[in-house]
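Recall from the previous lesson that a structure prediction takes nothing but the amino acid sequence as input. Here we apply that procedure to Gamma-glutamylputrescine synthetase PuuA from Tepidimonas thermarum. The sequence below is the only information supplied.
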Amino acid sequence: MTPDVQRIQQWLDEHRITEIECLIPDMTGQARGKIVPRHKYDPAVGLRLPEAVLTMTVTGDYPQQDFTPVADPDMRLVPDAGTLRVVPWAKEPTAQIIHDCLHFDGTAAELAPRNVLRRVLSFYERDGLQPIVAPEMEFYLVEVEPDEDIPLKPPVGRTRRTEAGMQSFSIDAVNEYDDIFDVIYDWCEAQGLQLDTLIHEMGTAQMEINLDHGEPLALADQVFLFKRTVREAAIRHRMYATFMAKPMQGQPGSAMHIHQSVIDRATGRNVFSRADGTPSEAFLHFIGGLQTYLPAAMAFFAPYINSYRRLSRYTAAPINLSWGYDNRTCGLRVPHSTPEARRVENRLAGVDVNPYLAIAASLACGYLGMRERRQPSEPLAGSAYEQPHQLPRHLDDAVDRLLACAPLAELFGEHFVRTYAAIKEAEYREYFDVISPWERRYLLLNV
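The prediction returns the following tokens.
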């Protein structure tokens, strides 16, 4: 029995677990897997699941081409002992554990988002570096509405009223939903999710919760579990929590800002700062890499048709890759900090992203910048909203740019990139077949 298997068995015994949720994050960031009774779960053996699960679209469909190694094979699911947690909302003592996806020869399944992030991190490790990230997640609380044709509305709070207007940073507006946030914090604490601050964002019933900084894979796991937790807490309070990038007309979109720094593994020093505390060449090259490669990686930061509705001028969302010191109009912001905490905030990603892929993509672009010694533009002090658009404006353009970028394919794996592009193309085709209410309203009798 390996130490990890022994650790899992001991933990399950100590917590009197009767059922285990065996999870993997799919391409959308949703939890797939199996629920297994404790007496039938052997962590030394793991489970099996069709590898095609990793090629599903957000609608549950598949690309026309089969991207699995052979026709519809299984893959092994092997538990990661470091992800073992309770399911705090379960009625019976239930565990959840994230599993790694492997081929039967023991190699990593190239299509698993968790393995993609590991692959990108291996390039940093090879160079003696360790990235550090801190995600910020925005989301809306909305009224339960089963009819998809009816626009979403903010939920009723403790005063039995909905919010009037935008309440940025309002403490009282957050307190309207005290009951749900008390549960969210309790459930996150039970799972070891390291929450930092809670604020009310610009939109009506739009919130932001930040996670403490840490190692990228662990933080991606936390985002994956956090989304699941918030959705569950909202449903139990008779409302929805949505992580759509742009859920409501006339309201700001929701982002997942990614703060990033890089430390030297040998010394623990932040390589973005020189010994005298000034910005280093590595810091500038990292920004230069983001400016160079983020447009080609756009499909990871804006993965759905809806994602591009968020990226518009004057809405606290970037339209280009200008960078500046403490300038929130820029796609790349450098917050005020000590030299030890110098970091770059990537403001491009919507909160609808797969956290593993968005973090991997951001770190990949920065890594390429350091490797290629890319020079950034001059920092911008004015409004980046007055600058030209520099990003893909829709999903099919983003996919084309991704497929044309050989350096990103090297870091992500060419097979993964081609598969991901095919999934996005299938989603775009399905969306394009839908006729919207706007088209019926303005074109039905007027053209």
